[in-house]
Amino acid sequence: MNPKATLKGRGAQLNVPNRFFELSHEIRDDFLEFCHKEGEASDKNKTLYLPVFPKTIVNKVESPDVGMLYSMNAYQGCEHGCIYCYARNSHEYWGYSAGLDFERRILVKKDAPKLLENLLKKKSWKAYPIVMSGNTDCYQPAEKEFEITRQCLEVFLKYKHPVSIITKNALILRDLDLLKALTADGLISVNVSITSLSEETRRVLEPRTATTKRRLETVKILSNNNIPVDVMLAPIIPSINSHEILPLAKAVSEHGALSIAHTIVRLNGAIGQIFTDWINKTMPDKADKVLHQIESCHGGTLNDSRYKTRMRGEGKIAEQINNLVKLARHKYFKDKAMPKLNCDLHESFKDGQLKLF
């Protein structure tokens, strides 16, 4: 791999134009030359935390192939900087770029715990698992400062409501006390994303995430505390991590994971341009090969929005990947399964304490 990428600790290496804006701006060579002569940085590469105040926090998921009905996101944008992240496009709705802005302009919803509690107290609300991080990681670096995710878990525990978490950050272990309390009533499941066993690959794909070693340790610690863990081998990218499916599955099974899930990478909207720019800078020797193989999984294009097909792909390469995952499940997860979350307790705890009558 070639460390030609110019912005250290970032996935995207540019800000692509926002499709909703008529105007856009670009950094010209003469400006870069001026900065060079003056000894100034053309880009300070700083992360900003920006408060926002939504009226609701839980979203109903309409997509039929996502595997969740309700999700919530304490943060919009994600400092982890995963280059392939499907959530990048959503940042455009907030008026930012799907590129560097997604990693450096983090929108913080401090009212999330209160909004969640208001929802769970409603008489009309019927318990159903809510997924934290349906869009962006609830344990990204911002959580160290704001602790919004922890406050939300306290609300779920208070009202005995089922919740599922998706993360690739070992910071989740900070809240082990709450996770254990939720587990006692069957109210929690955790999905840890692990994309590669190679630190070199992890570093360029997901620059500000926990190391692979730390994530495997997280799976083990959670599992040792009887907290059900699924590992998401997602996304599988041809010729980057597709050869790791079996060793990845073996490793996570040995660390206590009860199941695995996967998707094949798709580069919708602005992500295609961001990923293409990135791979030409970081892996120039294999860029064309990887891009063409991704296209071969999606009908000849990087952009695939077809329900049912978009997650699993089509064609020979996609078929090989999907068959390897089937083999991995049979080989390493034959007698394992994730438990169903408990939706029966919440009604008796509608006001935050057990109703006796």
Automatic annotation (TrEMBL):
SUPFAM superfamilies: Radical SAM enzymes (SSF102114). SMART domains: Elp3. It comes from the Bacteria. Keywords: Iron, Iron-sulfur, Metal-binding. Residues 61-314 form the Radical SAM core domain. The keyword Iron applies. CDD domains: Radical_SAM. NCBIfam families: rSAM_PA0069. This is PA0069 family radical SAM protein.
